[in-house]
């Protein structure tokens, strides 16, 4: 596991070199994705079937998953798993309801009314990855905020497989309230959602994680539809001092590391003693992990222990890292809230272990990765609404505004703008 | 001017054919921009100077515009223009302050605290186009919401010119409270903001309109930094019935048409009489417009008069168009607010002429174009903040959640997630 030590400025420089965040452009993938999107625009469902055969080795009869298939999948899932998903749903709903925003209307000036409407998107597409692992929790996290926002139709797509869609994914879709499911994956799935086909309705926004083809396709259709952020590897940053429990910290770091060999687990501390204990614990706990191979690679290649000189320096460094998940394992953690400038989801104290947020607390687990917490937010209800401004002026109010408007319009060389106001007074 | 008539469904189909919104990929521009960005990443300021020489025909001594230069520009601007900009600023500030959002904290469950922090971005870059026309109003519209959000540093860039930066742009930057100005344009300017150079600080988000090189560069750096929406040509949609004033409607349609030969002016009405009068008025008013040539081309190639059978059909059609600007010139316009599903900025009644919003009312004039009002919002304070989730659990609360968390984690094959929670109870 790599250690960074020294002056804060040296650590920040080393971090910048270590965390290479320049976006890699993979031109081959980009070109392939461009062609796939063009094919789907031109040939619709037929293109989707051909790509399913080619990429998923599945000859599709129906793209659409029927209500019966969903219900059968739901029935096959263990009752306690259903109950846990229902409990998670309840928490996700109660948290996200607090994010709801409301219209406002401003009547401060005589004869003038200015306002803002909060309107839900009409139709949203959710991409759910296929492959060996199924993540029903992600279905809840992507769908429920859209439901709370008031989105009328939620379309889920997921890659076809010879064995059919995973039961627990179908169950999660039912619990979350997905309206329609289609079995289509990859860039072709994103293209279908963005432009529509005979079978798949065009959506207004696409959310959900995927592999490099999915991510590249989302970037390419951006503008024709809205997209959520492009997700990178998972990240955790833990701030801890000598009083913290190394066992818990190691376990939490490993819970990120097991996601992906590119996952990044970072401890920032002012205690050499703690750092050493955590490192020892990590290698001990690693031994018995089923996903040992993945977690070990992640820890070896992307794990970091950073020794800062003071608690203040710890926060400076962590704010530069801008981690997706941030644990504050310091005494009286809430007293440090004000010091946090960049983090997707903050976990306070030794019992707010990060997996609580992945599965249960109700905060969203779709979070800004790779330092994008500097400018992106967790997925939320705000991602599924848009605002409309409203303006009303009486003739008297317009008369008072007229001179300023016509002066500025003419200064910008836009005479028709000036005349549009003046003609009201001819 | 083109007319669309018939059944609502026929009109919607014709609209889809008429308004081709598939994004054109210009691979040559994309490749050029990719190279420019790489050069700026590798060679920093030196690359910026070389591109200024090549593209702007300016040999730059300093990239940075000094406070003295800004002050001199400000002093040279007519006093009444300064006063009009100050008045506009006051309205923009009072409107956007209503958009401010606040932290929340939820303590519904015993031993659990869940919250959301609203944190400003640290540093934002604003692109201001150069060229013959200067748009000081756009400087206010891009900068002031960032100020209100609490952004600490606002960097403006604008292309260099042999005559220096326009005085009124410098004045608007001063009034809006820009922190630093650099004279750099094009894709190289966007690259400098996204990755930083010796002189230009790296920002967290880039906003502001620009030509195809600027727009393509913004799309390419998206992910390394945040960006605002990619702006297309200006659009206005007007809903009006037989009682509306054709002179006002024609003038408002022309105020959009004069922006750009690609600008789109659309009247949707249920009155043939009004439609004919508006068309006649448009050609009459066109004759004396300084920007007649531009406006005429826009009206001829992209102007639309749509005859709907009912008021309900008028709204159905307009919601499909999702115009950037929407005027409702119907009696008792506020009673129709609920019918509007997609529009950037809504103007109610015959005195809320659209230029009021461009220059004075205080609502933002940076708006979603080309139908993107279906999923995008006007530029606002919300574009310059991001949210952080906060979670705190006591040991007792975690004990109650433990079974659901570990069950779901193991169902997803993520054993280390389960153990991270369980180790707290060993």
From TrEMBL, chains A, B:
Gene3D superfamilies: 1.20.5.1300, Nitrogenase molybdenum iron protein domain
One BP term from GO: L-histidine biosynthetic process
Cofactor: Zn(2+)
Pathway it works in: Amino-acid biosynthesis; L-histidine biosynthesis; L-histidine from 5-phospho-alpha-D-ribose 1-diphosphate: step 9/9
Gene Ontology MF terms: histidinol dehydrogenase activity; NAD binding; zinc ion binding
PROSITE patterns to which the protein is assigned, alphabetical: HISOL_DEHYDROGENASE (PS00611)
Chain positions recorded as substrate binding sites: 234, 256, 259, 325, 358, 412, 417
Protein name: Histidinol dehydrogenase
UniProt cross-references to SUPFAM superfamilies, sorted A to Z: ALDH-like
The gene coding this protein: hisD
Coiled-coil annotated residue ranges, if any: 12-39
PANTHER family: HISTIDINE BIOSYNTHESIS TRIFUNCTIONAL PROTEIN, HISTIDINOL DEHYDROGENASE HDH
Classification via InterPro entries: Ald_DH/histidinol_DH, Histidinol_DH_CS, Histidinol_DH_monofunct, Hstdl_DH
Its EC number(s): 1.1.1.23
Reactions performed catalytically: L-histidinol + 2 NAD(+) + H2O = L-histidine + 2 NADH + 3 H(+)
